[in-house]
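Example 3.2
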Amino acid sequence: MPNVPSYPQLPPISLSRQLSGLSNPAFHIEDDPTSARSSASSRLSVHPAVNVEDVDSGGGGHRRHIRQILTPQDPNLKTLTVPRVSKASRQSKVADKEKNLHSQSEDDDEEETETAVRAWPSQSSILSGDDGLKERPASSASQASYVVNERLQELVKMFKERTERAKEKLIDPDDSDDDSPTACPEEEAQPASPEREMEEQQPQSRLCCKVTPPRWIRALLQYRFPSSIDPFTNLVYVLWLFFVTLAWNWNVWLIPMRWAFPYQTPSNIYLWLLADYLCDLIYILDIMVFQPRLQFVRSGDIVFDKKDMRKNYMKTFRFKMDVISLVPLELFYFKTGINPLLRFPRLLKVMSFFEFNDRLEAILTKAYVYRVIRTTSYLLYCLHCNACLFYWISAYEGLGSTKWVYDGKGNSYIRCYYFAVKTLITIGGLPEPTTLFEIIFQLINYFVGVFAFSIMIGQMRDVVGAATSGQTYYRACMDNTVKYMASYRIPKDVQNRVKTWYNYTWQSQGMLDEQELLVQLPDKMRLDIAVDVNYDIVSKVSLFQGCDRQMIFDMLKSLRSVVYLPGDYVCKKGEVGREMYIIKAGEVQVVGGPDGKTVFVTLKSGSVFGEISLLAVGGGNRRTANVVAHGFANLFILDKKDLNEILVHYPESQKLLRKKASQTRRIYSRHPTRPSSPSLAGERDRDIGDVGRGAL
């Protein structure tokens, strides 16, 4: 056979006699050639005996006798003998096989090589699928060759089908109709049993009842913890700081309350301890997992190495404070009992609270709201601590012992908190302290209240002032302009239009001049912002189609946004043109005619006009038509000086722009005004649209 290797130096292997260690009598070979002439209806057993002999050891000139498929005398003993084939015959078969398998891929060739030599359970399984094999040649060798060729062709066909199925799965992975390829030819020949059909249907029924988890659960399961964390942009780190801040606030607010008020009792002590140790676990995870993974900057480079990040954290003052905050003073519980004051070191993790404030303000669009809430919480915490001290003093002197102390009636925390509010805000109406200790405590309360509330009010003013700084600037500009117009006795209609411009500009943009915000940024950042905001509009302008992309980027940095009111003249015919306009939002109309009110064309968002005067084609730079704003119009303005500085570096784009402007000018020279004929007017409008939709 073609795939049976030859070994010239080895003697023939004969299995005619039973070898040591081989106890299966089915592996047997007959040396008598006469025994091979049995009937063609004999069948092979499941464990055939194989005789492999060297076909090339005798040299090229000696022709060896070809073994035939032998049928043993014993009906229970079935033997398969692999016939020896001459070298020339084997080479011809190899060539035929390579020709048949020429169209297969490399993967199919490897798999075919592995499965080229197979033993079938019986001869009947080979002959049962093909009716043409009933009449075979009389020679046993030719019968074996015919059967082998048929099986090889079947293998090739199966490999082709499997390749096609694999391609279909790659194209449409959701297709569930494609079954997996069979492992061997016998599985295809065997009929499907009822048990096998039930096994195949059972996974399908399970798949039909499969419940898909929600998206957030799948995202949580697929999340992999990063090896390094960017503390400025990673939202997961901000979320973790939120949990650390919650644990810190638990200790800050409840440690003094549990120390002063009798809310910690033997019946609920285990719940308090469970919450305390859960907060300690959050502290430990922050020290062991998150903080050693924070990126830092060293000599201008961002460091990602785990070892360097861990060493950098251990050198900081924050690491020392975090370690001290976890000092296990709770060991003194065994001697003093469960005293909440022993957890006072947990308050030293205050740096995580301040970091959370900074990170949260950086990602909020209205950070001033959070600043107001945080400032209010500072005031409430001062009152909370004063209420705890007042109850402790009342319990020390005895509840209800004097008129000044808490009498023990009602909700203890609410009544003490009410006393703290009246004391720190200095409302008055408090009972007079009677003892020296009460007088000293009340004096301290008054002084603390004055300083605390003055600081809180000043900080609240700064927060509110920063939140409304833009609106304050807008109001100041508008007031100064109105005052100026009133001093020069400007007509009322002009004053009203100026006020309308201020109001619409502020409502639409939230600012009066966008350039003031970007002037402090580097040039690269200004370009990135300009591209994100304005590139989609400018790239759609037909005038700039085909221009250099970098030229458009440079032009975006020079654009200015201006708002025009309804009826405002953007430009007038005959005036010297120094700007080019791109419509960002709204509409403008090209008007003219004898009365100056005939609308020639209406330009919408993305249209450009004014480039003829700006590019000064043929030496002329005067406007060729009137353009009026139809409603509120927001336009981009590009100055002639800025455009000339840009086009110096892009000569090809300059030639293209001048060519398009020249085409527009020829159209207007051919049709200076809109013709009365509808056909000519339509032709003029189509020509204008081809070169820029109303370029003037």
